[in-house]
Amino acid sequence: MAREATLVIIKPDGLKKSLTGDILSRLSQAGLKIIAAKTVKVSESLAKKHYGHLSDRPFFKELLRYITGQLHGENRVLAMVYYGESAISQVRQIVGATNPEEADPVSVRGAYGRILTTGLFENVVHASSSAEDAEKEIKLWFAPSEVVVNLYPCKVITLEKVEQKVWA
Ligand code: DAT
Ligand code: MG
Predict the structure, then answer these.
(1) Residue 155 lies in a domain
(2) Nearest C-alpha to atom 16 of ligand 1 is from which residue?
(3) Domain CATH for 87
(4) Which of 4, 20, 58, 161 is the most exposed, having the fewest neighbouring CB atoms within 10 Å of its CB?
(5) Rg (CA), the chain
């Protein structure tokens, strides 16, 4: 298996419960490299693009409220790209199954996830589930300049009159 990249997001519940250190140390067991990382205020538009494939599911609205932080008063997630041998399956193994009740009890979701009374799985972390999803998700969350490995083909464009916030 070649080296591959996968998107990992510590969701608002993971941050609110101060689980970052524990999750990162569990992920470090996989021997992968972190090649991008940032905190993100998740907009409605980013949330809809990220979870677009689930738009017809009954829990979709609640899922958007979850990832945008409205369920936890925590409009912030930690987004990272992990890179290495079988990164996608290794990370999914550490993270555990989607349903926290079915997840291996020693996985992140098994240990810390829960099912809300609304039925939504509050499962602490996101991890890409295929190479195709990983590429789509990494391109959605990160610009090429934010990733220290050249993962996918890029092009150079010249922008005119772009407004950008800089330090005053
Ligand atoms: P995963 O995050 O394991 O890739 P997914 O992409 O199918 O799972 O779904 C995205 C999120 O939506 C998931 O992390 C939690 C929520 N979810 C998925 N299936 C659900 C279900 N049947 N009931 C409640 N929440 C669900
Ligand atoms: Mg998924």
Answers:
(1) no
(2) 121
(3) 3.30.70.141
(4) 161
(5) 16
